[in-house]
Amino acid sequence: MNAGNKIIIKSVSLDDARLPSVIYGAMGNPSPEKILEVIGSYKNSDHVIIGAFIADSLVGILGVCKTSKIITIRHISVPLKYQRQGIGTLFLEEIKKRYEGYKIMAETDTASLDFYAKSGFTCREFNGPYGNLRYKCEFNL
Q1: What is the DSSP string of 43-58?
Q2: Is residue 38 part of a domain?
Q3: Residue 82 has pLDDT above 80, yes or no
Q4: Which residues pair with 51 in a beta bridge?
Q5: For residue 5, pLDDT beyond 70
Q6: In a domain, 68, yes or no
Q7: Of 2, 46, 119, 132, which one has the greatest count of Cβ atoms within 10 A?
Protein backbone atom coordinates (compact mmCIF):
# COMPACT_ATOMS: atom_id res chain seq x y z
CA MET A 1 0.00 0.00 0.00
CA ASN A 2 1.15 3.52 -0.66
CA ALA A 3 1.95 4.74 2.84
CA GLY A 4 1.40 8.36 1.79
CA ASN A 5 -2.29 7.71 1.16
CA LYS A 6 -4.64 7.29 4.08
CA ILE A 7 -7.34 5.05 2.67
CA ILE A 8 -10.68 4.97 4.48
CA ILE A 9 -13.31 2.31 3.76
CA LYS A 10 -16.86 3.52 4.36
CA SER A 11 -20.35 3.65 2.91
CA VAL A 12 -20.81 5.41 -0.39
CA SER A 13 -24.10 7.02 -1.37
CA LEU A 14 -25.81 5.59 -4.42
CA ASP A 15 -26.40 9.22 -5.42
CA ASP A 16 -22.67 10.03 -5.36
CA ALA A 17 -21.88 11.57 -8.77
CA ARG A 18 -18.46 9.85 -8.76
CA LEU A 19 -19.92 6.35 -8.44
CA PRO A 20 -20.70 5.71 -12.16
CA SER A 21 -17.15 6.45 -13.30
CA VAL A 22 -15.64 4.19 -10.61
CA ILE A 23 -18.01 1.22 -11.03
CA TYR A 24 -17.56 1.41 -14.81
CA GLY A 25 -14.23 -0.40 -14.56
CA ALA A 26 -15.90 -3.51 -13.12
CA MET A 27 -18.53 -3.81 -15.82
CA GLY A 28 -16.86 -4.44 -19.19
CA ASN A 29 -17.73 -1.39 -21.33
CA PRO A 30 -21.34 -0.82 -20.25
CA SER A 31 -23.72 1.82 -21.56
CA PRO A 32 -24.56 4.78 -19.29
CA GLU A 33 -28.05 3.30 -18.85
CA LYS A 34 -26.62 -0.07 -17.76
CA ILE A 35 -24.37 1.65 -15.21
CA LEU A 36 -27.37 3.43 -13.67
CA GLU A 37 -29.36 0.18 -13.68
CA VAL A 38 -26.57 -1.65 -11.82
CA ILE A 39 -26.17 1.17 -9.28
CA GLY A 40 -29.95 1.10 -8.74
CA SER A 41 -29.79 -2.63 -7.99
CA TYR A 42 -27.89 -1.77 -4.80
CA LYS A 43 -31.11 -0.31 -3.37
CA ASN A 44 -32.07 -3.93 -2.68
CA SER A 45 -31.79 -4.61 1.07
CA ASP A 46 -29.46 -7.59 0.62
CA HIS A 47 -26.98 -5.57 -1.49
CA VAL A 48 -24.24 -3.38 -0.04
CA ILE A 49 -21.80 -1.04 -1.75
CA ILE A 50 -18.86 0.53 0.05
CA GLY A 51 -16.18 2.90 -1.12
CA ALA A 52 -12.51 3.51 -0.60
CA PHE A 53 -11.65 7.16 -0.07
CA ILE A 54 -8.42 9.11 0.00
CA ALA A 55 -9.42 12.43 1.53
CA ASP A 56 -12.57 13.32 -0.45
CA SER A 57 -11.68 11.25 -3.52
CA LEU A 58 -13.59 8.04 -4.23
CA VAL A 59 -10.79 5.67 -5.29
CA GLY A 60 -12.59 2.33 -5.38
CA ILE A 61 -15.85 0.50 -4.79
CA LEU A 62 -16.87 -2.93 -3.58
CA GLY A 63 -20.40 -4.17 -4.12
CA VAL A 64 -21.68 -7.37 -2.54
CA CYS A 65 -24.86 -9.37 -2.25
CA LYS A 66 -25.56 -11.01 1.11
CA THR A 67 -27.62 -14.18 1.36
CA SER A 68 -27.82 -16.89 3.98
CA LYS A 69 -24.17 -17.22 5.04
CA ILE A 70 -22.84 -16.37 1.56
CA ILE A 71 -21.37 -13.06 0.44
CA THR A 72 -21.07 -12.71 -3.32
CA ILE A 73 -18.76 -10.04 -4.65
CA ARG A 74 -20.69 -8.39 -7.49
CA HIS A 75 -18.32 -5.55 -8.30
CA ILE A 76 -14.87 -4.54 -7.22
CA SER A 77 -13.30 -1.65 -9.06
CA VAL A 78 -10.30 0.55 -8.45
CA PRO A 79 -9.34 3.09 -11.14
CA LEU A 80 -5.96 2.37 -12.73
CA LYS A 81 -4.39 5.41 -11.07
CA TYR A 82 -5.06 3.89 -7.62
CA GLN A 83 -4.34 0.22 -8.33
CA ARG A 84 -1.51 -1.61 -6.60
CA GLN A 85 -1.93 0.44 -3.41
CA GLY A 86 -3.70 -2.25 -1.37
CA ILE A 87 -7.26 -0.98 -1.87
CA GLY A 88 -8.63 -4.31 -3.11
CA THR A 89 -6.99 -6.07 -0.16
CA LEU A 90 -8.53 -3.54 2.24
CA PHE A 91 -11.95 -4.26 0.71
CA LEU A 92 -11.50 -8.00 1.28
CA GLU A 93 -10.33 -7.43 4.86
CA GLU A 94 -13.40 -5.27 5.46
CA ILE A 95 -15.89 -7.87 4.23
CA LYS A 96 -14.10 -10.65 6.13
CA LYS A 97 -14.47 -8.54 9.27
CA ARG A 98 -18.10 -7.52 8.61
CA TYR A 99 -19.28 -11.00 7.63
CA GLU A 100 -17.32 -13.34 9.87
CA GLY A 101 -18.53 -16.91 9.40
CA TYR A 102 -19.78 -16.33 5.86
CA LYS A 103 -18.47 -17.92 2.68
CA ILE A 104 -17.24 -15.26 0.22
CA MET A 105 -17.77 -15.97 -3.48
CA ALA A 106 -16.57 -14.13 -6.58
CA GLU A 107 -16.54 -14.72 -10.30
CA THR A 108 -13.64 -13.25 -12.20
CA ASP A 109 -11.54 -13.27 -15.33
CA THR A 110 -7.91 -14.20 -15.89
CA ALA A 111 -6.74 -10.62 -15.25
CA SER A 112 -7.96 -10.69 -11.62
CA LEU A 113 -7.27 -14.35 -10.85
CA ASP A 114 -3.94 -13.68 -9.10
CA PHE A 115 -5.56 -11.09 -6.83
CA TYR A 116 -8.08 -13.62 -5.51
CA ALA A 117 -5.57 -16.49 -5.32
CA LYS A 118 -3.08 -14.35 -3.35
CA SER A 119 -5.94 -13.34 -1.02
CA GLY A 120 -6.55 -16.98 -0.04
CA PHE A 121 -9.42 -17.82 -2.38
CA THR A 122 -9.71 -21.22 -4.03
CA CYS A 123 -10.49 -20.68 -7.72
CA ARG A 124 -11.70 -23.07 -10.38
CA GLU A 125 -12.13 -22.33 -14.04
CA PHE A 126 -15.25 -22.65 -16.15
CA ASN A 127 -16.46 -21.49 -19.55
CA GLY A 128 -18.40 -18.23 -19.34
CA PRO A 129 -21.66 -17.60 -21.19
CA TYR A 130 -19.79 -16.16 -24.18
CA GLY A 131 -17.28 -19.01 -24.40
CA ASN A 132 -14.71 -17.03 -22.44
CA LEU A 133 -12.60 -18.46 -19.62
CA ARG A 134 -13.90 -17.44 -16.18
CA TYR A 135 -13.13 -18.44 -12.59
CA LYS A 136 -15.36 -19.11 -9.59
CA CYS A 137 -13.45 -18.15 -6.46
CA GLU A 138 -14.40 -19.08 -2.91
CA PHE A 139 -13.14 -18.14 0.55
CA ASN A 140 -14.48 -19.77 3.70
CA LEU A 141 -14.22 -17.78 6.91
Answers
A1: TSTTEEEEEEEETTEE
A2: yes
A3: yes
A4: 10, 61
A5: no
A6: yes
A7: 119
